[in-house]
């Protein structure tokens, strides 16, 4: 299996995804939130790139959710905090989600054979699903404000580590960034939460009162849900 890690959405080129499985990673917070929404019983999550597009899809069966610069979008029902996505708020409903980087990355990946949403919460399950699909893998780190985000790189390293432990994956070759992220994750033992809190996105979230989101998002393998893009909806 070939694994390529891409550092941010700005580095993503659609032709690199053809005939591959792409795992989009936005630990803080889009892909973690998508996992939480489906765990709470949402009927699906529709990622859209712009606020205007999200508003155009507003209807009684849809819940508008999203953020810009870590703040909930005015007029939307939910922001981008995983803990907002309770069964009472989203059960049986379709979520229309737009975020600064994560939903852009999901759209960039749409030429892939399969698109998954990965995070620290579902890393093991995500690795297992990717292995079962028997394609080369691209780990697309969404990043933050068009730059690499530490937490996404750590997650990429974790997913590679999980893939290497699977007996169904005979051999793995990875690009240099993948090897670096695997090393970064292996060096994070016991320090993961502190590393997330100390990163640029983590500091921004803490400043805006979202420390609990970081605590939620740094839980390794707390979920077996693997959101998979089906048409334009993750389910």
TrEMBL record:
InterPro entries documented for this protein: ComB-like, ComB-like_sf
Keywords: Hydrolase, Magnesium
UniProt EC number: 3.1.3.71
One MF term in the entry's GO annotations: magnesium ion binding
Keyword Cytoplasm: no
Catalytic activity: (2R)-O-phospho-3-sulfolactate + H2O = (2R)-3-sulfolactate + phosphate
Domain of life: Bacteria
Cofactor or coenzyme needed: Mg(2+)
Family membership noted in the UniProt record: Belongs to the ComB family.
This protein's name: Probable 2-phosphosulfolactate phosphatase
